[in-house]
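Hi support team,

I'm filing this because I wasn't sure whether my run with flavin-adenine dinucleotide finished correctly. The job status page said complete, but I'd like someone to confirm that the output block is well-formed before I use it downstream. Pasting the exact inputs I used:
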Amino acid sequence: MRLDALIFGGGAAGLWLLDRLSRDGHHVLLLEAHALGAGQTIASQGIIHSGMKYTLTGLLTQSAKTVREMSLVWRDSLLGRSTPNLSHTQLRSGFCLQWHADTLVARAGAMGPRYAMLPKPETVSMHERPAVLSGVFGVVARTPEQVIAPRSFIQDLANQYRDRILKIDAKAGMEFELESPGEVAAVRLTSPADQSTLELKPRQVIFTAGAGNSQLRKHAGLSADLMPRRPLRMVLVRGDLPELNGHCLDGTKPRVTITSEKDQQGRMVWQVGGEFAEESIRIDEKTLTERARSELSIALPGVGLRHAEWSTYAVDHAEGAMASGAGLESIQVLCAGNVTTGWPTKLALAPILAQEIASRARAPYVMTAFDTTPFVHWPRPSVAQLPWDEAGRRWWQVAESTGFELRRAA
Ligand SMILES: Cc1cc2nc3c(=O)[nH]c(=O)nc-3n(C[C@H](O)[C@H](O)[C@H](O)COP(=O)(O)OP(=O)(O)OC[C@H]3O[C@@H](n4cnc5c(N)ncnc54)[C@H](O)[C@@H]3O)c2cc1C
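And here is everything the job wrote out:
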């Protein structure tokens, strides 16, 4: 079957692009090897950065402007005023809170954020402060960063494009026919359900498979491992916790970022990241939990977590490297032959990646409606489970003085 475009990978990047190319009239399919969003999107904290994070030192960079524009695109989509229509995507919060760690730097009043961008964070008055932040030092502010529930976002787009999303067996059920390196003539698939076959002849092939892009590029005869990967280990805390979405700053840098969502049993779960998560890949779970607990006691003084349960999960973040080497995020797009490889580097930047790839795409070869009936019996991928709802996840409690009690999840 002839196609305008074939997308591999159904995380934020692939799904946003599928919407964009479908609306532009392309005959396009998305192939998913695991579950939609498996990898980074389901593991992300869901913060649609407003660019503020990148202006804390007072410099208005191009990255900050781009992120700011993208946050407005998301806002319109979430309201159903723009495409993709994300009006069924749940918001964890309409804003983030921002406060300061009680450190010498903060007490000295030096190195605080100097925002170069409007709107600046709004100060939250003492009587409006949530109880969980009642003990924090200095100003608490509200930033215009929406926090989405990533699973509902993936589900929202998956529901809209179910007829164009196919499950594949990327190891044993997929074969590339190349005309030359980077020039894909056909992709042959064998159904993971009933061994039926499908031959797709796309004019362009797009890899938005996150960590899976390297392997796909090898199939297409292209060099792999072009994207730096940053391994992270995030911490989960669950129990009788208040809802909290925001960042604790240390000087001009976010020190701890907490987002929250209820699990399938209705228990609140905090997803905790920050600087400690970046070094955490080299340390064991016990040490990591201790470190996270210590970070939370600095970020949220007076908040007792005695009865909380803890867990951790590992995930690789495919990051953008700036030409300057500064490490700020921006989208990455590589084109060779009829193959495009894309990394959004941030959930928030999925719209700009889709726009960039769509603007380079050749016009659809026929402007007729895409008939998806030939794929009607092909298996469809499920949506990935949130880390805290994964079956078999281990949770543990931290006794105040004696260390660890390991327990299996209820
Ligand atoms: C812990 C963490 C927290 C984050 N928090 C935020 C945040 O708050 N805000 C923000 O803006 N960004 C955040 N990010 C970054 C953001 O999550 C990613 O930039 C974004 O989700 C990447 O989306 P993606 O679609 O490129 O990749 P992924 O989400 O990794 O999706 C790749 C998809 O491709 C599939 N796949 C893999 N191999 C193949 C194959 N061979 N064939 C077909 N399909 C394949 C996978 O199963 C998956 O569905 C966070 C990242 C991490 C790791």
